[in-house]
Write a structure and sequence with these properties.
Strand content: 35-45%
Largest sheet: 5 strands, antiparallel
Oligomer: single chain
Radius of gyration: 13 Å
Number of strands: 5
Helix content: 25-40%
């Protein structure tokens, strides 16, 4: 049975927790209710809002410059499957790591 979008996102974040901490990122799990979960990632250069809904495997990843509050990364909407959720999170992480150099 396929994982829900929330389970997929939570599992992905959990699997990268030590890597995120090593990159200076704090993960704040805002909670889960009614098929939606929210997370904030606080990094040295960026603040990242991650919202995931089980309905339609929807995932929004919005990154903001910590100094200017300008949105610098945005991928939002339906991912259709748990694989789509994982792929969107991986695209975000690849972008994030490239911005830290």
């Amino acid at each position: 049975m396929e994982k829900t979008a929330i389970e997929t996102c939570t599992s992905w974040l959990d699997s990268r927790e030590s890597e995120m901490h090593a990159s200076g990122i704090e993960v704040d799990r805002k909670g889960e209710a009614d098929g939606k979960a929210a997370f904030w990632l606080y990094g040295p250069k960026h603040l990242v809002d991650v919202c995931v809904w089980d309905h339609a495997f929807c995932l929004d990843v919005l990154a903001f410059d910590a100094k200017t509050n300008e949105m610098v990364f945005c991928e939002a909407g339906s991912c259709e499957t748990s694989q789509g959720v994982t792929e969107r999170l991986q695209r975000f992480w690849t972008w994030y790591v490239s911005q830290q150099a």
